[in-house]
Amino acid sequence: MSEYQYYEFQAIDRPLTEKEMGELRSCSTRARITPTSFVNGYSWGSFKGDEDTWMEKYFDAFLYLANWGTHIFKLRLPTRLLDAKTARRRARLRAGEARQAGLHVRVRGRGGRRLGRG
Description:
Blueprint: E1 5-10, H1 18-25, E2 32-34, E3 37-42, H2 51-57, E4 61-66, E5 71-78, H3 84-93, E6 97-101, E7 104-111
Antiparallel strand pairs: 1-3, 1-4, 2-3, 4-5, 5-7, 6-7
């Protein structure tokens, strides 16, 4: 069985600049990159970026799917909309995690067959 991984990042608060899209392009020649997204699927090779760094620097939402059942979803929200304490409390109830980075809180959810879900 072949391996497949899907990565999708979305910018919601602001579009990416040409310079930022160029920085992303240096990590993938095949990805579909627009001012509001980076999308790529991998059947061979692997993602060359760092999803957490990209979430801090460029994007507000992230989705990862793998054919072996792993699913990861991340959101970056302004702390004025969701305070870090509430995010951490809610994330723990769902086996997720939340952490504050500057004026944003990053929330991560995870699921899949290997984790007893799906």
